[in-house]
Amino acid sequence: MKRTISIIIVLAILSSCGSAKSVIFKDFNYQLSSSFYKNQFTGVLVIDAASKDTVYNLNSHKYFIPASNTKIFTLFTALKTLPQRIPALKYIKLNDTLYFEGTGDPSFLHPYLKDSTAINFLKKHNNIVYSLGNFEDEKYGPGWAWDDYQWYYSPEKSDLPIHGNVVMTIGSNEIEISPAYFKDSVLQLISNRNRNEFSNTFFYNALSKDTVETPFITSNLTTKSILENLLNKKVSLTNKTPLAIKQTLYGMPSDSLYKRMMHESDNFIAEQLLLVAGSVFKDTLNSKKIRDYILKNELYDLEQEPRWVDGSGLSRYNLFTPKNMVSVLDRLFTMMPKEKLFKIFPAGGLNGTLKNKFIDENEPYIYAKSGSLSNNYCLSGYLVTKSGKTLIFSFMFNHFRESNSEVRNRLEQMLQKLRDTY
């Protein structure tokens, strides 16, 4: 009798899931076959996180420009390679001299993270030498737009970033500039640019009360000068680090960086995290080497090999499939408790880039990373249905001419159907 009841229950569950999938299949097919999607490229994959059953699939094997969905791969890389606290510096102490090198740590006096671990450590030593040579990357990623040099979302990459590699100008009765090293480099005048393209000369409207973040041009000499200004002591440079075992100074919890990267879609943190991972992996700051390692080892079994060229998704050279995204999201789902994972992702209607989107009147049902470039919008992550099930999904829309808001509104209807039906 008990066995009969169990069989009936299982059959009822299977019937319910089959019915729900049928409803979703018909609804999605109807929506995605409308004229709205006719002249664009659309890819969708939705799976059940527990059973791994496919709920809906459309062009999930095809490549799309992912925009900031790329950060999902960067998050996976960081979780696989970095310790619980971010490596802030590597150093060697010989007699009365401290030799140190950057790890790419983006939190060093970052305007929002404000980690002071490294600077406080350096203040304790009188003779300090900044070791160069471990940065084997480019300041910009492949395919980044050259004219983004003046905008907050496109700072240069470097081995020892300071203050997020941006100059923050805060309008008030007396304009505040940080780092203070650039105080004399900010000209108070009206200009259609925030900075000279080829020099660290910045422009700010004296009548403005806005806070403006402008990337500065990085170099070893600039870093040295900023450090000397902060420490009020001389900093020497060397290309020859002594032959000795390097020690590591650890800074703030790594989770804090992951959360800001995903919630605010912070491009700078994403790029620097790959460099930090490279520092841990091979003592070399090179994002390509760590990306290649992850693809060949941790993600060797992806059905379609991605074209992965940066950490942030700023580049249109990136190519990923919805299956790529769902596969990595599925691995993340098994790597850590759901509650902890969901806190790293923006929650619909609650925080981050989804604070005003995909709102539920009771509680968040979407935990996902959005990605947008002109004419492209993607959303990949997790959905909690009203029945308590978790779905893993990736929606990728490329080359549309309609507004992003209309694409999101139509996507929200499909997400609500998943929430209410499955």
UniProtKB/TrEMBL annotation:
Name under which the protein is recorded: D-alanyl-D-alanine carboxypeptidase
Please give the InterPro entries that the UniProt record associates with this protein. Answer: Beta-lactam/transpept-like, Peptidase_S13
Q: Give GO terms: molecular function aspect only.
A: serine-type carboxypeptidase activity
The protein's superkingdom reads Bacteria
Q: Which PROSITE patterns match?
A: PROKAR_LIPOPROTEIN (PS51257)
The GO biological-process annotations, alphabetized, read as: peptidoglycan metabolic process; proteolysis
Say which family it is in.
Answer: Belongs to the peptidase S13 family.
**A Pfam family that the UniProt record links to this protein:** Peptidase_S13
Q: Please indicate if the UniProt record lists Transit peptide as a keyword.
A: no
Annotated keywords: Carboxypeptidase, Hydrolase, Protease, Signal
What sections of the sequence does the record tag as coiled-coil?
none
The region annotated as signal peptide is: 1-22
